[in-house]
Each structure stands twice: as structure tokens, then as C-alpha cells.
Write a structure and sequence with these properties.
alpha/beta; Aspartate Aminotransferase, domain 2; 12 strands; 15% strand; binds pyridoxal-5'-phosphate
Length: 368
Amino acid sequence: MKKPDRRDCLKHIKPYKPGKPVEEVERELGISGVIKLASNENPLGASPLAVEAMKKAINKMHDYPDGYCYYLREELSKNLGVQPEQLIFANGSDEILTLLALTYIEPGDEAVMANPSFSQYDFALRLAGGVPRQVDLTGDDFQYDLDAILAAINEKTRLVFLCSPNNPTGTIIRKQELSRFIDKLPAKVLLVLDQAYLEYVEDPDHPTGMDYIKQGLPVISLRTFSKIYGLAGLRIGYGIAPAEIIDDLSRVRQPFSVNAMAQAAAMAALHDQDHLERSRKMVEEGRIKFALGFNALGLKAVPDQANFCFVDTKADSKEVFQALMQRGVIVRTGDIFGFPTFIRVTYGTAEQNDRFLEALKEVLAELQ
Ligand SMILES: Cc1ncc(COP(=O)(O)O)c(C=O)c1O
């Protein structure tokens, strides 16, 4: 077929392969009640306040959304103690990753990231013709090696991605380590602190990044309403950074990428402390239950501070995945992260967690 030549950098990018909808899995397997513990969503759903706000917003869907996210911006700037111009809103924090690459990466420029970490850093970077430099996490507990990351920075480096808690391992970077790292970061490098799971962190030694941003250092913290706030389907995330960085990013942003429903729901969700507390408690209980369940199976998960865990099943994760799916439980295989015996599992409700552990026990017995 005759077609125009695509851009060269796209040879490194494969189209995203989404999993099947839960309903389709149920139809194919002839079962009901399939549970998805694969995408780190909040199984409690959206906050009831957000659901109410969406019902009200539905009457306004004929209007374009507020491209400035005025009310959300005001609210978050107050909560975070930053100026409104220090915030950027986007169609999920995924979109901010693309904006960062389009803003700062010329073809051949580099960015440093951990391995394993969130796949969209690589995607965004390559889209702009950039080159990733991956630095392995270290040890059984998959810690960041920030010295090795510093050593991977060269004159072509524009961005460094640090994900804390890290997806898929759930591990965190600590305050002092980050502070030492930022002190040594070359002036022309922007630090992207991806904090999609920040609200789940219990360790008081985890940095929020806000001090650095308030000092005007080249740091952007990425947050999302997709995880603890339970609004993944609406697509809304935001970034906090010095105003000059937000100004740069705003040049490549589509004016209406954050829809009106998402803005209304996010605003309401921010006020629902009860939903946040219930979500955190559910995850804490899930973590304890999984630890006991894994222990009984002779498995050990990586210590995490997120709403998911990364566990070595000591079996082929693709086989484990298939066998779990047959039993109505969907998880994420570790092979996509380079760890073919690991699976990543989102903590679910108490009932979902029981079902997962029961299914895992059967599956591992079957595969032995
Ligand atoms: C570490 C990390 N960052 C960002 C995102 C993307 O979030 P959003 O739904 O806001 O695009 C995810 C989603 O899985 C994630 O795990």
C-alpha cells in the first residue's frame, strides 16, 4: 500500500495493546464476577461526592470545558501553598509526560529513568525522538540507585524521571536521598517526580517534592485523580512546578484536554476525606492480608507503599496470568517489566483479595 513515510522515531514505539474489557473476558469464559486487579485503580469506585457532582455537571455538556480549570486550580493552589500559575492540568498525568517530551526533547536528547518503572516515560520520550537511559533498581527490594542515575546523566540529558512510589515495584525514594540527588543535579536537567501513588504512602520519610518546587528548582511533581480518587475513567491529572516550567509546558498543551465532567468530579473528590480514608484503610488491610497469604505460599512481595504489590511467583507469570484469568482474576504479568516470574497485583476489597489469594494458591499448585 502507498503511504507516507512515518517519522523515524516511531520504529521504537509499538501501538498500546489494551487488555480485554472485563465484560468480554466474562463472556468468553462463560463466567461472571471477574475482578481486575491489573491497573491500580480504586475498587471502591469514585467518591460519592464526585458522583453527585458529575450528575449535576451532565447538564452542561454542550459547553466547552473551562480550559484554565479555574476552580480546581484555585482549590489546589490553596491546598498546596503554591501560586495558581504553578499548576498544569491535563488529560491524565500521562498527557503531562507527553507535554514534557514535546517541550524539552529535541531528537537525540536523552532522559534517565529507572528499570523497571512506568512505561510511559519511554513512550513519551521516544515520541519526541529522545533516547532513554535506563538504570536498574537494585537489590531484592528494588531500591533506586540515585548515584547510578546521576552517573547516567550527560550533556544530552534533559529529563530525569523518578517515580515514587515506583510502578511496578511500589518502592519509594527517601527525603535525604532525594535532597542529595537534587543538590547534584546539573542545572539544565528537569527532575520529573511522578507521584501518582503519593496518597497511599505511609512512611513519613517520603518527600512530596514541594520544598524544591517552592524554592524554584527545576522539579515537576506529577499527580493524578486516577488512583486513590477513583476517577481513572475521566482522565485528569496535574503537575506542580515553578511557574516558568508550567509556562513552557502550556505552550504545547491542547486548550480543552481536561473535560468538564472530570473537573467537576475532581473538585468534589478533593473534599471527600472519608473516601480517601476508606481507600487508604482498604489498601493497608490488603497489604497485611497479601503478606500473610504470600507467606503461606512461600512467596515474598517487594515491600511497597502503594496500592499494588510486585511479587515473585517463582513460575512463568504468563502462565500464572492465564490460569488466574480462568478463575476470574486479572493481574499484570511481570514480563513486560523484564521480570518474567513476577506479577503486579492491585490491592482490592477484602473479598477480592480473598478471591485472588485463593486462586493464586490453586494456580501455583497446578503449575508445579
Ligand atoms: C506511575 C504512574 N504515573 C502515571 C500514571 C498515569 O496516570 P493517569 O491516569 O493520570 O494518566 C500511572 C498509571 O498507571 C502510573 O502508574
